[in-house]
């Protein structure tokens, strides 16, 4: 289930945001950023029953043009259902025309994930993000339009794991 994050969710969001495996790909939140995003309803929480297991930060770039600024889940296998619920939230309740995002060009897992959901490549921003260690990396910009979301087919099934004999 997806819902707007509440002040009591800030600790979970901060811990997941700053987790070591996320820091390579997510900007550390600025002082007060989480609380401010919660206050204006831009932070969404993904729940497994009643337990929070992921979050997304949605920002308005222009009227009806939203950006997925941050997206994280606490364990493998949760991303697809969270992204499906997130797109429903964005394109129905928030009535977006477009949802955009960017991810680093070397994050092949995220690129495959968003491509498989139907996001289209729009270009590369050269050296758009500086990692905490100081290296600059390229970012791939992607988006989905409301009409693409409405007419896309089912999300392809996950590939079965390859078993070695």
TrEMBL record:
<dbReference type="GO" id="GO:0016747">
    <property type="term" value="F:acyltransferase activity, transferring groups other than amino-acyl groups"/>
</dbReference>
<keyword id="KW-0808">Transferase</keyword>
<dbReference type="InterPro" id="IPR016181">
    <property type="entry name" value="Acyl_CoA_acyltransferase"/>
</dbReference>
<dbReference type="InterPro" id="IPR000182">
    <property type="entry name" value="GNAT_dom"/>
</dbReference>
<protein>
    <submittedName>
        <fullName>RimJ/RimL family protein N-acetyltransferase</fullName>
    </submittedName>
</protein>
<feature type="domain" description="N-acetyltransferase">
    <location>
        <begin position="1"/>
        <end position="147"/>
    </location>
</feature>
<dbReference type="Pfam" id="PF00583">
    <property type="entry name" value="Acetyltransf_1"/>
</dbReference>
